[in-house]
Every structure is written in structure tokens, then in C-alpha cells.
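I need you to check the entry underneath: sequence plus C-alpha cells. Let me know what the C-alpha cell row says about the fold.

>
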Amino acid sequence: MENFIFQNPVKLLMGRGMIAQLSKEIAADKRIMITFGGGSVKKNGVYDQVREALKNHYTVEFWGIEPNPSIETLRKAIALGKEQQVDYLLAVGGGSVIDGTKLIAAGLLYEGDAWDLVLARRPVTNTVPLSTVLTLPATGSEMNNGAVISRHETKEKYPFYANFPLFSILDPEVTFTLPPYQVACGLSDTFVHIMEQYMTTPGQSRVMDRWAEGVLQTLVEIAPKIRENQHDYQLMADFMLSATMALNGFVAMGVSQDWATHMIGHEITALHGLTHGHTLAIVLPATLRILRKSKGEKLLQYGERVWGIISGTKEERIDEAIRRTEEFFRSLGLTTRLHEEEIGQDTIVEIERRFNERKANYGENGEVTGEVAREILESAL
């Protein structure tokens, strides 16, 4: 096990009716800007619950934070927040709204263009306090300090790090009305978050391995049941908590991490707008195929513990583990090949160029260069 320092200060409020706790968790003298996405919260009752809970607080609303939040939109939110002298932020939405609000929290206290903060590639600690009401489980942004910010003008997408939310509210009932495609992408995102921290070097930590495998097994078990009945409270509670636990640092303690699949997926989203979780369903199986030699021992462990694969030669068991992984994503209703989304060789060439330009060497061993990214994408065709 590698040395590590772990701290996660986020307070989770989980369960039915917890949105009402906003009035107790946020001081009455705060000037709050509430950030939203496209308006689904007005259809599922979340908006009314938030408004009722904060009826005695000063609030201003900002709407329109899109999937893969763009700096172009977030600049408008920052300008509004400064104009209204906002000193507290509440993100109500999924990972994109929360990600975008993290940059807003930093931008409100920054004199220049907030895009500078993204390009600086350094965590920002001088921010306005932020809390969240999660409506779409997927990214884990409600319990981590990370975000991903896009720039539409140049089709770029980069990670950004700031302060953790003070608290996050998770009510599984708000997920009942989510479109099935969004649920599928959320399940995929959660699964791959775990894999990025688990499918690396074997023998680093029994605790982290078993914890990661437990979440993966949970996802495999609940996914088909969610497809049948998205209104089951216990199923959606398990999904919501799995997504949070997948990327709040708990399964990453003392182990190496990969993230090559994510970096490739981000480029596909930037270039084509394909939902992030969907890109991961396409890229991960291909990544495992191309990196099967360096990840072989962990693939065998994963195949046995998650999928119950115990017979056959080593190579046959690895093949079956990868096949089961791809089949899992297809069972969610997601495509797993680039050609199914009409993405072809031009995109592969551009992503290789971008990786080479930034001298990329992603993965736990630094082996995913531009050339290897091209091999992965060609395997995903």
C-alpha cells in the first residue's frame, strides 16, 4: 500500500424529505445563488422543495448550466453572482451543475477570467462556500473536490479542482423520473469510476480491492432491476450511494489509479457532445483489450470476484472478463462501439494529435500515449 493522506469533509444528508433540511444547514444571513440545469427540477418537485426550504433566505437563481458545463455559461453566472453580492452557492442538479458551480465558487472571488483558473491546473482554495442537492447520480461530484469544465469555442474539456461542498443532500425519490438513458449513463459512469481506481496494480490493498469489488457487484446486481423498476426506493438508494462512494476518495486510498479511459472519453465528448458516461462504455472495454498484458493479473482477479469466471486458460478468462464488461454496458441500453455513434477515423486522428500535443502519458504506468490512445480507439471502432 502506498502512502496517502485522506480527508473528506462533506456532510451527507441521505433519504426522503432531506431537502427540507436546507433551512437548518444554511445560515439565515447568507445571500444564496441557486444554480440549476435545464428545468427538470420543476417537473419532479425538487424546485418546489428547495424554494419552500429557503423561503426565509435571500436567494437568486441561475438557470441553464448544460451537460459538460461550459466556461461561456459559467462566466454569466459569475457576473450575476458578483452583481448580487452572493456569498453562498447551492447547486441543484447532477454532476454537471455541481461541477460548474465549483468553478463559479472560485470565479466569484477571482478578478480575472475564470478560464484562467482551469488552465492553471492547480486546486483553488479561495472559494465561496458551496452545497448541493443531487438529482442525478453519476459523477460523485457531490462528495469530491473535482470538476470538468468545457470551452465550446475551442472544443476543449479539462479537469478543475476546488474546495469540497460543505454538505450534499441525496434523496433517492428525485431519481424516479429520470430518463432511462441518463440512468444508464450514470450507472456506466459509476462503474468506470471504480474501475479507474481498481483495475491497476494487483496486491496493493486487500481493503480497497474488496471495497471496489463490492460496489461493482452491487452495480451488476441492481442495474437490471433498475431497468425493470426505476421507482424502487431501495434500488435507487443503492445506486445513488454507489455513485457517491465511487469517487469520493474512499476506494483510492493507497492504490495507484488509471484514468486513461476518462481522458479519452473527455475528448470524444468535447468533439461530438456524446454524454460522458456513454463515452466510457465505449472506451473502457477497448482499453482493457489493448492493455490486457499489463492489467492481466488484475483482470483475472476481477473476472473471478465480480463475474465468477473460474474456468478456462488465463487468456480465455481475460477474454471473458472483458466480454462480460462490454455486455454489461450493452445491457444498460448503451452502444459500445464508435461506429454505432457515427464516430470514425477523423476523430481518432484528432484525439491522437491532442494527446501528442500535450505529451500525454496516462494510466497507472504512464503507458497511454497518443499512439496507444489511437490503438484503443481503433479497437473500439
